[in-house]
Model the fold of this input.
Amino acid sequence: MVRKTKEEAQETHTALLNAAEQVFATKGVTNTTLNDVAQAAGMTRGAIYWHFKDKNALFKSMCDRAFLPMEALLNEVTASRDDDPLAALRRLNLHFLQLTAGDERQRRVFDIMFHHCEKNSVMQVIEDEKAKRDECLNQVESLFVRAVELGMLPPDTDTYMAMQANHAYLVGIVHEWLEDTQAFCLLQKAEAMVDLFIAGLRACPPRISAGCTAQTIAASVRKPPAPHTTRHASFSSALARARPTSSPCAVRACWRKPRWCCSMPWQTPACATWPPR
Done:
């Protein structure tokens, strides 16, 4: 048997990934077998096992190939120490949406992950990738930290929640758009949607509340209710815990007339101190 050259091996590897994308998108990850992928690529199962240990390894390689351009830009943006980190965040978010809308492979992989991927079938891959995902999100959070350092966001900005909001916003846009790509042109609307988030962040960034830290939230979630607690008492205590008693942006008459501080830029009450006038 003649050993394949590196170029031929790479061509086989690429062909298998291309076939996997097509079959996963059609049949779903759970219902796809390695034999299905081999047939779609015009190869044998032996060719798959030469390159991939199992279906999870094939799925992981498919995702890694799609995400590589975004990871490269993320590393570039976060390493540059840009004088305007919010402009860097805008560039990153815009690249993400435009790449998803304009690149067929990127779009197909996200569609597989969101709509054709039963989590139990790739649970090990998800667990293995968690550390990598957290590292990427930490890099994004560093942009918010930098913005605070430069005075572009207030000192008490909750940079972790800002990062989570940014992530949820982008993933939500892509998820909903893939449900119906005819609803709007993401490629054309991406810039406006990114600017909408950045404008909201500048006008009303999430704040760190003295009475609502990550530790107190975790403690309240873990604490089981007392056996004799009634439903009414439990609900009342939940409401009491939810009141931001020590936040500088407290709720005024919140149960009769909800009026959250900084609800909208044009409805900012006097207690708000950001952005500076």
About this structure: Residues 25 and 63 are 13 Å apart (CA to CA). Residues 220-225, 227-273 have pLDDT under 50 and may be disordered.
